[in-house]
Recover the amino acids of this structure.
């Protein structure tokens, strides 16, 4: 597709469950970012990939959160033992060397 | 860390100008951005300004940057009901990583 694609668009889970969120960036974009947007707030940085490697994971809140990008394209954000406070919209963005970030529509996670 | 602040809410009448303000703390940013977010949609880049510029105009949008005061503003001329959305300012620090403000909800009344 032409833009950043994120799946699922909505995910409802129970506290303690494991969740995976997927991001398919724009073809050819080497950089990929994950942000988290809680209700009524701006997006907060989680992790940044350049190619296959995590160039900066300083925004991950704790070790329950992990992200991979094994082939330098699609990325998966993984959340273990979900908590109610993890409920948010998880946004993915990609960019080329020009630097402009293109955002997907996000995956809304609700932890009951 | 970086801190980016915005007022929460702005209400204007259709046809008036809107001015959305943003203050930040990190003076080393290279680019400063304005994003628009409509309900249920992703973030859309509206415009950006390079840190060595004072002003940038793009059709109905005017961005003003006061580096001394670390103040960024977005002016929307002839505001339309379709401009109703949440507007985020964002600045880059390390590489392309962006720090966002909390967003300003713009309501345009007919």
């Amino acid at each position: 597709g032409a833009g950043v694609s994120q799946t699922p668009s909505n995910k409802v889970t129970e506290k303690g469950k494991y969740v995976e969120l997927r991001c398919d960036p724009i073809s050819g974009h080497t950089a990929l970012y994950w942000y988290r947007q809680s209700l009524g707030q701006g997006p907060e940085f989680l992790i940044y990939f350049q190619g296959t490697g995590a160039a900066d994971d300083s925004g991950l809140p704790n070790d329950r959160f992990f992200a991979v990008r094994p082939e330098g394209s699609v990325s998966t954000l993984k959340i273990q033992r979900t908590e109610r406070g993890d409920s948010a919209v998880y946004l993915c963005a990609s960019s080329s060397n020009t630097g402009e970030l293109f955002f997907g529509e996000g995956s809304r996670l609700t932890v009951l | 860390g970086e801190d980016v602040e915005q007022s929460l809410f702005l209400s204007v009448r259709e046809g008036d100008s809107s001015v959305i303000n943003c203050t930040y703390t990190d003076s080393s940013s290279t680019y400063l951005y304005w994003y628009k977010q409509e309900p249920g949609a992703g973030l859309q880049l509206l415009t950006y300004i390079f840190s060595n510029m004072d002003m940038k105009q793009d059709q109905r949008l005017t961005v003003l940057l006061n580096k001394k005061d670390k103040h960024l503003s977005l002016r929307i001329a002839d505001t339309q009901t379709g401009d109703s959305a949440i507007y985020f300012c964002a600045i880059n620090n390390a590489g392309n990583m962006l720090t966002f403000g909390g967003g300003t909800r713009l309501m345009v009344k007919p």
Residues 8 and 91 of chain A are 12 Å apart (CA to CA). The two ends of chain A are 32 Å apart (CA to CA). The first strand of chain A starts at residue 5 and ends at 7.
